[in-house]
Amino acid sequence: MKFLSICLAVCLVMFSAGAALADEMVSLKVGYQSLSPSGTFAGESGGVETSIDMDDDIDFDDSDDVTAEIALQLGNSRLSFNYLPIRFTGTGVGDFTFNGQNFSGNVKGEVSADIYDIGYSYNVLNLDDLPTRLQLGLEVAVKIIEGEASITGSTDALPFVVTTESVSGTAAIPTLGLRTRVALADFIGLIGRVGYMEYDDNSFVDAEAQLEFSPFPMTGIYAGYRIFDLEVNESDLLLDVDFTGPYIGAFARF
User: Fold this and answer.
1) Rounded Cα–Cα distance for residues 14 and 198 (Å)
2) DSSP 129
3) Nearest to 165 by CA among 113, 112, 103
4) Is 11's pLDDT higher than 90?
5) 3-class DSSP state of 18
6) Contacts of 49 (CB under 8 A, 6+ apart)
7) Which terminal residue of the chain, N or C, has fewer Cβ atoms less than 10 Å from its own Cβ?
8) DSSP assignment of 81-119, as one string?
9) What is the pLDDT of residues 219-228, one digit of tens each?
10) What share of the chain is helix, strand, coil (3-state, %, to 5)?
11) Nearest Cα to 74, choosing from 1, 12, 3, 152?
């Protein structure tokens, strides 16, 4: 948490320093993403864990959710807040151990995470006097992840009674990375970003490529592809998962 406080303080100082450089611009984005899962999850009990595979053990469906972003551009500085909900459910047949409970037969699994992404980027390269405009910036962000995993089914102790075991945890993972934007014309642009950090048995890789199309000056649509590589070891929750998939949405600028 000390590292998180330092990151936020640096972001605010640098963002405030850019206030005198240009007029502000606020952008709002609302999108829809579809992510496919792979990897493993586990519930730890007494130091013992048994990983459950999201492909082989339980057949998880894709996560289809609404996302939102608000960003403030001020000169070369950009401050953003993203909300990314993820929900996966699936069913499987077999013998599973989760959070100290032994399940057998038909089971239902659920893995969910609410990701709150606070980011700050600063353009170290801003070529706006060329036919193709290019921006390249350094980005620092903090991903606050509220995750939960559960298994529902019959246990060995109660074979005819449906029981649910769940574990949850919250992790704040800072990431460092790059953000770039290439404006091919006034109405079309390409955005790419990647961030990574490993911190206290948790790690996060967040990468995406996005195309913006703005036929009108202050509104437009966008589409892209996102990759999450997430490891969480908090409380009794252990995640080692990849989420990948496309997204689309609309935006407005003020």
Assistant:
1) 24
2) S
3) 103
4) no
5) helix
6) 42, 43, 238
7) N
8) EEEEEEEEEEEEEEEEEETTEEEEEEEEEEEEEEEEEEE
9) 999 999 999 9
10) 5, 75, 15
11) 12
- Residue 57, helix vs strand vs coil: coil
How many CB atoms are located within 10 Å of the residue 204 CB?
Answer: 24
- Using CA atoms, how far apart are residues 161 and 236, in angstroms rounded to an integer? 24
Encoding tokens for residue 65? Answer: 């959710």
Residue 74 tokens read as 């001020």
Amino acid, res. 91? T
**How far is it, in rounded angstroms, from Cα 156 to Cα 161?**
10
Q: What is the 3-state secondary structure (H, E, C) of 165-202?
A: EEEEEEEEEEEEEEEEEEEEECCEEEEEEEEEEEECCE
Give pTM, 2 decimals: 0.83
